[in-house]
Design brief:
The chain is mainly alpha-helical. The chain has two domains: about 70 residues, Orthogonal Bundle (434 Repressor (Amino-terminal Domain)); about 40 residues. The protein has eight helices and no strands. The longest helix is centred in the C-terminal third of the chain and has 24 residues. The protein is elongated. The model has no long low-confidence stretch (mean pLDDT about 85).
Length: about 120
Amino acid sequence: MSLGSRIRELRTQKRLKQAELGAIVGLTYVQIGRYEIGKAKPAADMLSKLAKALDTTADYLVNDDVSDPAITAQLTDRELLKQFKEVELLNAEDKHIVKVFIDAFLTKRHIQEYVK
């Protein structure tokens, strides 16, 4: 999938018109349209603004290798995203503890759903 296709897909998922996305990042709808059809490519700073407005990463927008689940993962909860970024800064032992807590919580939820 191309950069333009990803921009269009994420924009439509957020139910934004080209003009609305343009207003958020400081562009006209015409320029957003040019990005979406591949007639232009955003500069690095604009790519960053677009990624932020679309709740994704610049890597996701430009990377052609979508076979890696880490690239295609979309985390739209900004608070959770911030927390995960902080977890990435922890040492290996602390990261392991966080993973164990998450796994235990998810296992509990799966069991509760199964019992219902």
